């Protein structure tokens, strides 16, 4: 419409321009192109009026333009109405045709029962049409069709859900055959058409239903076949199938492996057989005669002969077979037979007479002890006589107990065949023997008789009673108080010593009082509730049955050593022994030992204190001595330098002594810790030798060092090892005469590094060897050596801290050899120490 207005506006502007230029006819022609006759009349009329002035002509031009616009608008409106009427008529005719066509398609679409479900693109609301009664009752809501689980079993419903989701998300079409919960067979087809997801559900009938059902049965049969093939492939037993002519048609991998073929085709091509010819002939004969074959046959597989249960049946025009490994079952069966024979042999070795009668009351088994017990003939027993015949023969031989009514006695004995539990009795035979008889019903029927000669047992019981009386008298004569309480907590046995020790009444104890009552009587002498609770719990306890030692210090000053001892019959024995005198002696010894330990600790504390107090001034003196010896402090006279040298040597010796004392005290207190690391043996000997070079030079002593080429290193505290070797070398130099030789050597063994230091001094007397490692043990033995006697003590302490050992070999007049073993594996030493 806006385009028409714009066009008319342009036309009016053109007409106005033409009128102004005197071209009125052209203007009218432009305004009225559809009415040339009327335009011509207007031109003539306007030509008459050309004489008007310009102002009137402008007004007339405007009026004519308005008139032209109105005329053109009217004409256009008339044309639009005519065109609209024609279009409306054509549209109504087309709508009628489309409605007719839609009715025809709808009638064709729903000519058979079906349901259509459609989802427009991007819309989750489904449009449902058709006959929903094929899946739901008629009064159901159409939207319930979308809940597939309401009219389909779980598995098809889940399948439909997944198919519909794939159709709506990706446009994947599907065609599914469904069976409803009521047994109807339906077909569901899903397609994406015109931007919509459409699902068509219809019932299959006639040939289509039969075809669908056939497909379902075929799928089920195919699945079953695949399952059986998978089972056969996974089965460890050889399985095969054969045609009517005996050709191999199927074999599982176990069959292929058993016949040593590379594949089923290889087994078919080479005609490999699992059974040998004789067994195959027997199997073919069995299949022909009875349509089945079962036998336990030996088969060689992988070079090993094993026993298999072979089963084959006719199937259709062929046969199938399987071979199940029965080697273990065969071995178990043989073992069971051997076990039964072993049991029989074992029963034959028993001293008890055993006779087994079966369900028909006939003798099925007997051992030799049974035959000898009753002195029966073996031929008679091997004939499997019945129970009554055996008893009658024993009665005739006067070997059974005398009975006033033998028939009633035998009937009562034979009740064991109907009993469910074993029965026990004692027979007193006319010859003076006593037999214990146990009759046990057998699960498979029958009775087992077990006869034991208990004559000696009864005699032993009589002897036991006499022994108990002797033990009772012995118990009464003991100085140790003894009382036995039963599992019910009551006193069963006591001796006079127990009564005297706790000042109890013997008559009251004979009434078997409870342990709580006895506790109340004993409170006057001992009233510790924790101890009495422990005694009560031990007497009445069921689970915790262990010896419990006691030590009681009573109010009267006496001390008792007690023991709670559980007995095998559930009783508990209490024993008490007066150890007052022993305790007093022990207490005195303990106090003396504590005093000695306190004195020893005081000595160690004194050494610690004095050593630390000495180190501080010594350090000051040594510092000032070094300061005075420094040339920067000024020159010294020769005498002053000599005196200062004496001071330095003395303070250094005193500091070394103090350090040694501190080390020994630290080791003695157990506070010494080794700083473990690799110890280079050669370097360690070199460091130790440097410390004695001045003494070697002064005394003109030669040091001989011998180190094995493969000595290497070991794990230890290098500083302490150097200290050990230095003390040994210093000790050897001190005891060696001038112009002699001191030797040090090192060698490696399997588990240790061995250092050996030798000298040619005066040696150590035999009575002194055990004392050389003691503190402050120092003897010159006629040598120049002087010292506090701590060097060897430190040596032994440091070596033992490393887990090693120190040995001294010495002969008076021939020198001394000190040997130190350092273990190479410190980890093993720590584990052993822990």
Automatic annotation (TrEMBL):
<keyword id="KW-0808">Transferase</keyword>
<keyword id="KW-0418">Kinase</keyword>
<dbReference type="InterPro" id="IPR035965">
    <property type="entry name" value="PAS-like_dom_sf"/>
</dbReference>
<keyword id="KW-0732">Signal</keyword>
<dbReference type="GO" id="GO:0000155">
    <property type="term" value="F:phosphorelay sensor kinase activity"/>
</dbReference>
<dbReference type="Pfam" id="PF00512">
    <property type="entry name" value="HisKA"/>
</dbReference>
<dbReference type="GO" id="GO:0009927">
    <property type="term" value="F:histidine phosphotransfer kinase activity"/>
</dbReference>
<dbReference type="InterPro" id="IPR004358">
    <property type="entry name" value="Sig_transdc_His_kin-like_C"/>
</dbReference>
<dbReference type="InterPro" id="IPR005467">
    <property type="entry name" value="His_kinase_dom"/>
</dbReference>
<dbReference type="InterPro" id="IPR003661">
    <property type="entry name" value="HisK_dim/P_dom"/>
</dbReference>
<dbReference type="GO" id="GO:0005886">
    <property type="term" value="C:plasma membrane"/>
</dbReference>
<protein>
    <recommendedName>
        <fullName>histidine kinase</fullName>
        <ecNumber>2.7.13.3</ecNumber>
    </recommendedName>
</protein>
<keyword id="KW-0812">Transmembrane</keyword>
<dbReference type="InterPro" id="IPR003594">
    <property type="entry name" value="HATPase_dom"/>
</dbReference>
<dbReference type="InterPro" id="IPR036097">
    <property type="entry name" value="HisK_dim/P_sf"/>
</dbReference>
<dbReference type="Pfam" id="PF12860">
    <property type="entry name" value="PAS_7"/>
</dbReference>
<keyword id="KW-0472">Membrane</keyword>
<dbReference type="Pfam" id="PF02518">
    <property type="entry name" value="HATPase_c"/>
</dbReference>
<dbReference type="InterPro" id="IPR000014">
    <property type="entry name" value="PAS"/>
</dbReference>
<dbReference type="InterPro" id="IPR036890">
    <property type="entry name" value="HATPase_C_sf"/>
</dbReference>
<feature type="transmembrane region" description="Helical">
    <location>
        <begin position="58"/>
        <end position="78"/>
    </location>
</feature>
<keyword id="KW-0597">Phosphoprotein</keyword>
<keyword id="KW-1133">Transmembrane helix</keyword>
<feature type="domain" description="Histidine kinase">
    <location>
        <begin position="609"/>
        <end position="826"/>
    </location>
</feature>
<feature type="signal peptide">
    <location>
        <begin position="1"/>
        <end position="29"/>
    </location>
</feature>
